[in-house]
Amino acid sequence: MEKIASFTVDHLRLVPGVYVSRIDQAGGNPITTFDLRMTSPNDEPVMNTAEVHTIEHLAATFLRNHAEYADKTIYFGPMGCRTGFYLILAGSYESEDIVPLLKEMYRFMADFEGEVPGASAKDCGNYLDMNLPMAKYLSKKYLTEVLENITEEQLHYPS
After folding, report:
1. Going by C-beta distance under 8 Å and a sequence separation of 6 or more, which residues neighbour residue 139?
2. Predicted confidence band at 6 (pLDDT cuts at 50, 70, 90)?
3. I want to staple 11 with a disulfide (CB 3.0 to 4.6 A). Which of 41, 52, 54, 128 is the partner?
4. What SS3 class is residue 77?
5. CA distances (Å), 61 to each of 71, 128, 158, in order?
6. Which distant-in-sequence residues (6+ apart) come within 8 Å of 34 by Cβ?
7. Per the confidence metrics, is the pTM higher than 0.90?
8. Rounded-to-integer distance, Cα 59 and Cα 108, Å
9. Is residue 7 very low, low, confident or very high in pLDDT (cuts 50, 70, 90)?
């Protein structure tokens, strides 16, 4: 069986950043999958499920309500390895194209106050597994350490 593209990335050299994972065609239209790598794989501790779940709720809510990207957002969700998230947008993009959107989104999450959207038994299948303080901490860390001073190395997968 052929290896899927995400398993061909050298995770020993991968650093936190924003990467185009793939561009596919759906009905003749491009869709771009982004790898939003928040931790250094196999080097830093992975994120716990509670903060991953909280970030998922906050980011999905932010994106689905965004003036420019609401209609372009196909999916936002966690990687199974818990080192980051996938963002899938309708259209063909480069990593650099979405850095302003990500800065806005991660600032929203870092500053978020109140009840996490959708964190109720009626709205979510595991609503008790949330950690807003840690989600805010990780969002601020990614914003300040990666997005605000992003480098070429953090925009393109290592060769």
Report:
1. 55, 58, 106, 109, 110
2. confident
3. 41
4. strand
5. 13, 18, 31
6. 18, 19, 20, 21, 86, 87, 88, 89, 93, 95, 98
7. yes
8. 9
9. confident
